[in-house]
């Protein structure tokens, strides 16, 4: 009988509702293993629905996304706990559906309904979801998916602030050093995003958490034996300190002789890339107009060595800015 | 209908063996390829019963790519799952090297197979099977919104059973991912190439230069226009020609020139003369290759100047050329091609130069050091301009053939005049020089125009930047993005001005030589003017 009636085309809201029902089913029947024909069928249906959500949000080969459809979808999605269900059920989905789901979640973070970002409001009321996403770094199978979602969520300033102020920040120092390159790099990318994206929030975080943060940063990242960890950390340090909004933190950092010693060791690193990044931070110590005596002492003690080092310090391609900075540093050190 | 490849893709994802993440678990057996900043080894994974794998060891100190790019490649490879797409088992760092553990593809890349036994190309039925598998990979990638951007024989790997995997996502890009510097919010349509006019730079338009010159589609070279999925189809067409001839068209020119040709000239494909006009005539003795109509039709559809007119990978898969593929063609491929070339281990052992042809390792210029290939390569190097006679069915840049412009989408050109081979050197010489003059006339003004347009764009962006005082977080993001664009543009302007300068110098030089050459006889001039 069903076939006699042409089924109405489903609205975007219908697709969301059906996705939600299927997710609820999947969530409840999580215990059953393969061989369950009904579960398989629901799973296939779910995959199709999520793919459809994606094509509504991104458009497909023939058409661009339609704003009205996106609005409908977004409203229905956040009306109930669809995002929570999707995040919780993600490990049960197959690879392709996980990727689709990740892209759907990513896109939803940018959708506006009557000029409000609905996703941001939802996440503010459901901050425990961030905890779930971050813990994804401990599970190789879902780390990259949760990681991508997480980076999209911290586009919202309030959500980034939540993560920055949580205990999770400490965990990133472990995640960054995971042996699996994909996952460690993903964690690094998130860490960097947290510490560079929302300028004012970052400045506040760094000044409030200066002591533990930079102590961890120096001992665990900058002094790591892992090449990638070191190279990414020194780059990030440069990005943070050279940002104008962090100038107070920068002044504090370059007034410490311990920090200076770490940077001077990095200047001698066997990696040229690390040396160059270290130079961009070291120059701040030298350029500081109010150098503390202990910093001056170290620079004076090592003056001849430093000058000799800089005389031979070149980069492969021509870079006027680099040469100018080097001149300046040499001048400063010679004048001490 | 049969399920799309991706429907089954996730299935073996869960039951995959875990490859260990430390160098100590692997025993390197031998080197099977090397590139500028990477070496590829055949290795055994000891804890997994000494399973054979390939390990690409990338020197992160020497690699020009920054760590973010390396990471994006690794991530792309980790998240793709299709039988015709090379997927990494895992990756981890060893000192300043990144080790990417991958399946071992025993027969190496098609490029390496060509140069170690088939310098004049592969039999057509072999081309069909390997290209069909490559297309399946492309279908999957494109469905994922991913553009490969470096399709070529060197990136198509073959296993001992003739199965094929597409490799090297070093330059691939996803249209679902916003570039790191452009973190502002927007989402693009999946495959609009070129992007709808008036739209801001959408995420489906990639404005950076990527890929290897000979395989590059014109709109990639014209990269300020942005390009999409159809660029892969162009490269696919070029790859088909590469497999048919043993090398990509225009590869006897230096890469920058080959790129200029594609910007400034329409290209046409020279059809094998014997197939077009001398059927039944007594010219069978000529050692010309014959290609089926289906093949030529397939290639010409890929090489449409206009991206929108090129077929999608999915559509191409239904082309008659691939309809004839049978599973026994794999056996044919194994017996007649794979068994006829040395093993990847042997290839690497007797190669004197470093070359990345055995694996996905980047090989910047096509290297030909096989015994057969040497002759061809050496001969090509001395020749100025391009050569009409050496190979049939080849990309042949022409400046102003009127009928060409009327049907730019039909690059196969049936031209009876080109029927004769060696006796009309003089005439060809003439044509060659015409081409050269044309190039100098067209290329420089064109580059200057591009340069001008870029400078204008830069100014526009600068204006926007200055107009926007900017305060809040969102504005900062936009500003960051715009600054990113400005930097990109500035870099490109710089590159182009260098190129213009070089080109002008080269033109002056060529003009001089031409002048001198006029006094000598024709054959000589063709040789002297070629070497730069």
TrEMBL record, chain A:
GO MF entries: protein serine/threonine kinase activator activity
Protein name, entry field: MO25-like protein
SUPFAM superfamilies recorded: ARM repeat
Gene3D superfamilies per the UniProt record, alphabetical: Leucine-rich Repeat Variant
Pfam families: Mo25
Gene Ontology biological-process entries: intracellular signal transduction
Family per record: Belongs to the Mo25 family.
TrEMBL record, chain B:
Residue span(s) of domain Protein kinase: 26-322
Compositional bias ranges of the Basic and acidic residues kind: 427-439
Any one GO CC term of the record: cytosol
Acidic residues composition-biased segments: 417-426
Record keywords: ATP-binding, Coiled coil, Nucleotide-binding
Ranges that cross the membrane: none
Disordered: region residues: 392-439
Superkingdom: Eukaryota
Entry's Gene Ontology molecular function annotations: ATP binding; protein kinase activity; protein serine/threonine kinase activator activity
Family stated for the protein in its record: Belongs to the protein kinase superfamily. STE Ser/Thr protein kinase family. STE20 subfamily.
Protein known as: Protein kinase domain-containing protein
Species, as recorded: Oryza glaberrima (African rice)
Lineage: Eukaryota, Viridiplantae, Streptophyta, Embryophyta, Tracheophyta
């Amino acid at each position: 009988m069903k076939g006699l009636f042409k089924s109405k085309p489903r609205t975007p809201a219908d697709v969301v509702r059906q996705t939600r029902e299927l997710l609820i089913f999947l969530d409840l029947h999580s215990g059953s293993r393969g061989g369950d024909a009904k579960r398989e069928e629901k799973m296939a249906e779910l995959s199709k629905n999520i793919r459809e959500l994606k094509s509504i949000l991104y458009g497909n080969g023939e058409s661009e996304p339609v704003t009205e459809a996106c609005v409908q979808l977004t409203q229905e999605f956040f009306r109930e706990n669809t995002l929570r269900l999707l995040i919780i059920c993600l490990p049960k989905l197959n690879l392709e559906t996980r990727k689709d789901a990740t892209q759907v979640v990513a896109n939803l973070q940018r959708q506006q309904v009557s000029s409000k970002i609905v996703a941001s409001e939802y996440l503010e009321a459901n901050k425990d979801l961030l905890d779930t996403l971050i813990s994804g770094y401990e599970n190789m199978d879902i780390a990259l998916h949760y990681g991508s979602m997480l980076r999209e969520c911290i586009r919202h300033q309030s959500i980034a602030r939540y993560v920055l102020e949580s205990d999770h920040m400490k965990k990133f120092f472990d995640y960054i050093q995971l042996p699996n390159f994909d996952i460690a790099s993903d964690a690094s990318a998130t860490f960097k995003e947290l510490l560079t994206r929302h300028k004012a929030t970052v400045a506040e975080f760094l000044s409030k958490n200066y002591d533990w943060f930079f102590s961890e940063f120096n001992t665990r990242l900058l002094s790591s034996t892992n090449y990638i960890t070191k190279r990414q950390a020194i780059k990030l340090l440069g990005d943070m300190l050279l940002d104008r909004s962090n100038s107070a933190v920068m002044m504090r950092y370059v007034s410490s002789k311990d920090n200076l010693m770490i940077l001077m060791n990095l200047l001698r690193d066997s990696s040229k890339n690390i040396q160059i990044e270290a130079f961009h931070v070291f120059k701040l110590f030298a350029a500081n107009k109010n150098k503390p005596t202990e910093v001056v002492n170290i620079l004076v003690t090592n003056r001849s060595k430093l000058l000799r080092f800089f005389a031979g310090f070149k980069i492969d391609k021509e870079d006027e800015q680099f040469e100018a900075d080097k001149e300046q540093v040499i001048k400063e050190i010679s004048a001490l | 209908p049969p399920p799309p490849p991706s429907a089954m893709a996730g299935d073996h994802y869960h039951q995959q063996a875990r490859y260990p993440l430390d160098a100590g678990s692997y025993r390197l057996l031998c080197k099977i390829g090397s590139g500028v900043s990477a070496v590829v080894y055949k290795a055994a994974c000891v804890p997994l019963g000494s399973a054979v794998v390939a390990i690409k060891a990338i020197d992160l100190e020497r690699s020009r790519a920054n760590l973010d790019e390396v990471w994006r490649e690794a991530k792309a490879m980790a998240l793709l799952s299709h039988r015709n797409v090379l997927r990494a088992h895992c990756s981890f760092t060893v000192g300043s090297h990144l080790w990417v553990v991958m399946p071992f593809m025993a027969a190496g890349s098609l490029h390496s197979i060509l140069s170690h036994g088939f310098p004049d190309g592969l039999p057509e039925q072999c081309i069909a099977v390997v290209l069909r598998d490559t297309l399946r990979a492309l279908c999957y990638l494109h469905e994922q919104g991913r553009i490969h951007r470096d399709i070529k024989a060197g990136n198509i790997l073959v296993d001992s059973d003739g199965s094929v995997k597409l490799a090297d996502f070093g330059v691939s890009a996803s249209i679902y991912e916003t570039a790191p510097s452009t973190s502002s919010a927007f989402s693009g349509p999946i495959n609009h190439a070129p992007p709808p006019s008036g739209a801001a730079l959408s995420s489906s338009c990639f404005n950076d230069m990527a890929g290897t010159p000979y395989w590059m589609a014109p709109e990639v070279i014209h990269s300020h226009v942005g390009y999409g999925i159809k660029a892969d189809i162009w490269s696919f067409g070029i790859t088909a020609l590469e497999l048919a001839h043993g090398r990509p068209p225009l590869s006897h020119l230096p890469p920058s020139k080959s790129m200029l040709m594609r910007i400034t000239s329409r290209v046409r494909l020279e059809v094998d003369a014997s197939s077009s006009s001398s059927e039944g005539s007594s010219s069978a003795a000529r050692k010309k290759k014959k290609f089926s109509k289906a093949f030529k039709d397939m290639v010409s559809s890929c090489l449409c100047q206009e991206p929108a007119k090129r077929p999608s990978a999915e559509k191409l898969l239904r082309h008659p050329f691939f309809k004839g593929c049978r599973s026994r063609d794999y056996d044919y491929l194994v017996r007649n091609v794979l068994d006829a070339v040395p093993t990847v281990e042997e290839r690497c052992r007797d190669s004197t130069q470093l070359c990345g042809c055995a694996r996905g390792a980047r090989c910047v210029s096509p290297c030909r050091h096989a015994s057969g290939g040497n002759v061809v390569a050496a001969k090509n190097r001395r020749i100025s301009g391009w050569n009409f006679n050496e190979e049939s069915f080849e990309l042949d840049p022409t400046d102003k053939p009127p009928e060409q412009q009327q049907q730019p989408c039909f690059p196969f050109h049936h031209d009876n005049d080109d029927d004769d081979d060696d006796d009309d050197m003089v005439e060809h010489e003439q044509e060659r020089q015409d081409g050269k003059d044309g190039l100098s006339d067209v290329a420089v003004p064109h580059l200057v125009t591009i340069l001008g347009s870029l400078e204008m764009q830069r100014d526009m962006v600068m204006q926007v930047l200055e107009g926007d005082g900017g305060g809040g977080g969102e504005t900062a993001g936009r500003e960051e993005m715009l600054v990113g664009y400005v930097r990109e543009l500035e870099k490109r302007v710089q590159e182009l001005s260098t190129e213009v300068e070089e080109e002008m110098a080269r033109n002056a030089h060529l003009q001089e030589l031409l002048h001198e050459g006029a006094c000598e006889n024709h054959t000589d001039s063709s040789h002297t003017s070629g070497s730069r």
